[in-house]
Specification:
Pfam families: GAF_2, HATPase_c, HisKA_7TM, PAS. It is built from 27 helices and 25 strands. By secondary structure, it is α+β, with helices and mostly antiparallel strands. The chain folds into five domains: 224 residues, Up-down Bundle (Rhopdopsin 7-helix transmembrane proteins); 94 residues, 2-Layer Sandwich (Beta-Lactamase); 152 residues, GAF domain (Beta-Lactamase, 2-Layer Sandwich), CATH 3.30.450; 151 residues, 2-Layer Sandwich (Beta-Lactamase), CATH 3.30.450; 143 residues, Histidine kinase-like ATPase, C-terminal domain (Heat Shock Protein 90, 2-Layer Sandwich). The strands form six sheets. A five-stranded antiparallel β-sheet has the order 4-3-7-6-5, with helices on both faces. The radius of gyration is 55 Å and the shape is elongated.
Length: 863
């Protein structure tokens, strides 16, 4: 026998012993991923090395047959162990024993076929040998080729698992996977050398022996798992929340100091049952005994302090059916629970704030919230007072009042720090002593920090403390919430009280007998009722197309000493009136349409009072008005529009009564006196010339009829003052001229109809135009002209004559609008013209020179 062959065989036998040196280590750590497969690999590699020694020396066919079958079993078992190691390590299988049983059945079937080869000759075909340089080898049959494919398939699957897993994971786990993959290279490399003819003997067994040590080193000895437990222990120890590890039997195997401190278990805790470990809080942790995943909140009281935890019990197994133990994590949520409790208390307190209906009570409830919920004892609220143009202290906590005497908590004007923060609208935390002393003009103030919280446009909440940096993010958060609540409540109160004040103001306004009286009544209430000390009212004059000042508040007089007259294109006020839109101007001087860019007014609200005029409220500060106030003022002016109409209606009805009384008294007395005088003359001398007396009586009777007719027309004009209709001006002219020419057939009236506009006018517009034409005819004109045309101001009716002109005392009707203008019983027709024009939103202009020219211009028309 060749000495080299003996030496090689001896080497194989000795190498078969080395894998067993690792068995105890692997068996001790058999619960770790990959250990099951390695426990299969160790005996298989040992057997493979021993059998390789025998097959190296064997030349007897029957012995070769036995050894060859054992060799097939060992190499197949090695590849099965390799697959189990890699698959379990990668997490693809959770029960390696089940897989071992399944693959073991395949190997058992393979061995059965190998040992019965004499029957079917499919594993070795035929049974015999072929000569190799160092030994005998079988002729491979079809089943042997299946064995070969199976071996390489299992080996390739294990390699593929390692490669895929290496791409999916990172860090220590990736290094471990690559180390496992390195275990393939020793046997593969040696086998390739032999197949290439570079070695006279197949030394693959030695490669497998080396591979076993590589795999064991990768799984247990390369610090991969040593680093992980050490890191895990450090992590568990440093976790601030209590953490406990429990095995499948319900015993505590690990815990961190936080958990042991919670249950007062400094020693003797390892291996105790869960119920015993958590015995101080057995009621809260009784659910552990169910051995089911748990996630809930628990509360524990220790040393008189209640702590709250988010309890989470998680299984250590890979699947729901596997139970390798449990991890108990108690995340401390005490601060969260306290914050939730504080939020609940805060919500209850804010509901009280929102339910208040007075500014003072709202502020008092807010201060109580600061004290009770935030635990801040020093607090004060300043609210903006537009009359003083300052932040005025409304209410303060007792501690705040004790720290600051009354002179220190004075009003905060536009130059103060509190006003600056209020104007910016952003929370500010103060920690500089000099900066803190400034708001209260006291350099010896003992507070070290302040939190200033603006209350929207209403004011500011001041919180103070004697400690530096006393206010954290939590205080700022709750301060912001409280600010929103207080501002919302103050908005509601301002709106409710504002609307109540508007109702009271309107109630007084509607009783006014004149527009001036209405304006004075309204403006007298503005400073106190709506905190609008700078207010004024303008009235629109159709004749001049201007807004003329009527009255202003006493506070506004110094700023509006010379109240402006607004006309088209010269102001924001005119735009607001003409557009019928309430305007809130935050910065008057910056507005391109401002009447005076150098005005002392910082901001203003302009609101039209319908067709009557305009209401304006101002402030010396920019951005002084809120949207809430804009809506309140808009409601007020809407009501004032109705009040102005009622005032006009009462004025017109009163005027009608006065006019009718004066006209009837004057005209009836005169005409009846004439009738009585002529009747007496007839009575005294019935045989005399009575025709003259009869004609006079008839003439006076006709005038009485005209007086009655005019009285009826005047009543109709007043009654229909709110009514309008669309009508063609040409039709109006034709009807009016036809009525006059029927009455005065000798009169000559020329028509010049250049346009045919449709206007929106009072139903008695025909009567008004008829009065103008009749006046022209009655005053002895030989030529009367009536024209219709369109100007830039609107459709116009022009009535002109060459007579002596309308008497001045009758034109006064258009200027006085009163019954005194009719003291001589004349001018009734022009009074009708004036009223119809007013109600038609039209203007009347008279020019008396060589004759009279009257222009009736309409502002409401179609097209």
């Amino acid at each position: 026998m060749n000495e080299i062959r003996v030496a090689v065989a001896t080497l194989f036998v000795l190498s078969s012993l080395f894998p067993w040196t690792l068995f105890r280590l692997v068996w001790t750590n058999r619960s770790k991923p990959g250990a099951t497969g390695l426990l299969v690999i160790i005996p298989s590699v040992s057997l493979y090395a021993f059998v390789s020694a025998m097959i190296t020396l064997t030349t007897v066919p029957w012995l070769w047959f036995v050894v060859s079958n054992i060799l097939v079993l060992s190499i197949a078992s090695v590849t099965v162990g390799w697959l189990l190691t890699t698959a379990e390590h990668a997490g693809y299988i959770n029960h390696p024993l089940r897989w071992l049983n399944g693959l073991g059945a395949v190997l058992l079937g393979e061995q059965l076929l190998a040992w019965t080869n004499g029957i079917h000759t499919s594993f070795y075909d035929p049974v015999g040998t072929v000569s190799l340089p160092a030994r005998v080898a079988p002729n491979a049959g079809p089943l042997f080729m299946f064995h070969t494919v199976l071996v390489y398939l299992l080996l390739g699957l294990g390699v593929l698992i390692c490669v895929v897993n290496a791409f999916d994971i990172h860090g220590i786990r990736r290094k471990q996977t690559l180390a496992l993959l390195a275990g393939v290279f020793p046997p593969a490399g040696v086998n390739i050398l032999w197949l290439a003819g570079l070695t006279p003997y197949n030394l693959t067994a030695l490669g497998f022996v080396l591979s076993v040590f590589v795999l064991a080193w990768a799984l247990f000895k390369a610090d991969f798992f040593a680093v992980v437990p050490n890191g895990r222990k450090r992590a568990v120890r440093n976790i601030p929340d209590p953490m406990v590890v429990i095995d499948a039997g319900g015993k505590v195997v690990d815990s961190n100091p936080a958990a042991r401190e919670l249950v007062d278990a400094e020693s003797g805790w390892k291996g105790v049952q869960t119920a015993e470990f958590f015995s101080p809080f057995d009621e809260q942790f009784a659910q552990f005994e169910d051995s089911t995943p748990v996630e809930t909140d628990v509360s524990v009281t220790k040393d008189g302090t209640e702590r709250h935890f988010d309890l989470k019990v998680s299984p250590l197994g890979e699947t729901a059916n596997e139970n390798n133990g449990w991890v108990v994590l108690l995340r401390d949520i005490t601060q969260v629970k306290e914050r939730e409790q504080r939020l609940r208390e805060f919500q209850m307190k804010t509901e009280e704030v929102l339910n208040k209906r007075e500014r003072e009570s709202i502020c008092e409830a807010a201060i109580e919230t600061v004290e009770d919920v935030l635990g801040i004892s020093e607090a004060c609220i300043h609210l903006y007072n537009r009359r003083q143009e300052a932040l005025v202290p409304i209410t303060a906590s007792p501690a705040f009042e004790r720290r600051f005497d009354s002179e220190q908590a004075l009003d905060q004007g536009p130059e103060s720090l509190l006003w600056e923060v209020y104007n910016e609208g952003e929370i500010r935390v103060l920690s500089d002593t000099d900066e803190i002393a400034q708001p209260f003009d006291d350099e010896t103030v003992s507070i070290k920090s302040m939190l200033l919280v603006p209350l929207s446009t209403h004011g500011i909440l001041s919180l103070s403390a004697a400690e530096p940096n006393a206010f954290d993010d939590r205080d700022q958060y709750f301060g912001q919430l409280l600010s929103t609540t207080v501002a919302t409540s103050l908005d509601g109160t301002q709106r409710e009280q504002g609307l109540e004040a508007v109702q009271d103001i309107t109630r007084d306004a509607v009783t006014a007998t004149t527009h001036d009286e209405m304006a004075e009544s309204v403006l007298g209430r503005m400073p106190a009722a709506l905190d609008l000390p700078l207010s004024a009212i303008w009235e629109y004059n159709k004749a001049t197309n201007r807004l003329h000042p009527v009255a202003s508040t006493g506070h506004a007089d110094p700023l509006l000493d010379d109240m402006p007259v607004f006309k088209p294109g010269n102001s924001i006020a005119w735009d607001s009136f003409k557009q019928g839109e309430t305007k809130l101007v935050s910065s008057v001087s910056d507005h391109p349409e401002a009447y005076n860019s150098e005005t002392n007014l910082g901001s203003e609200i302009l609101s039209p009072i319908g067709e009557f005029g305009l209401f304006a409220a101002g402030s010396t500060q920019e951005e002084s008005f809120s949207e809430n106030e804009r809506q309140i003022i808009e409601t007020l002016t809407t009501n004032l529009r109705t009040a102005s109409r009622l005032t006009e209606r009462r004025r017109d009805l009163r005027l009608l009564d006065q006019v009718l009384a004066r006209v009837l008294r004057h005209n009836l007395r005169n005409d009846l006196t004439v009738i009585q005088g002529h009747a007496k003359q007839i009575q005294r001398n019935p045989q005399g010339d009575i025709e003259q007396h009869i004609n006079s009586i008839l003439h006076s009777s006709k005038k009485l009829a005209e007086t009655a007719s005019n009285a009826q027309v005047m009543r109709t004009v007043i009654k229909d003052r709110e009514n309008t209709e669309q009508i063609s001006l040409q039709r109006v002219i034709r009807w009016a001229v036809e009525e006059v020419t029927d009455e005065f057939p000798d009169a000559t009236v020329q028509l010049q109809l250049e346009a045919d506009p449709t206007v929106v006018a009072h139903p008695n517009i025909v009567t008004a135009v008829e009065q103008l034409v009749r006046n022209a005819v009655e005053h002895g004109s030989s030529s009367v002209s009536v024209s219709v045309y369109t100007t830039a101001h609107g459709p116009t009716v022009e009535v002109s004559d060459d007579g002596p002109g309308i008497p001045e005392n009758e034109i006064e009707i258009l200027e006085k609008h009163g019954e005194s203008a009719l003291e001589h019983g004349t001018g009734v027709g022009l009074w009708i013209v004036d009223r119809v024009a007013e109600y038609s939103n039209a203007s009347v202009d008279f020019t008396v020179e060589d004759g009279t020219v009257v222009h009736l211009t309409f502002s409401n028309y179609l097209g």
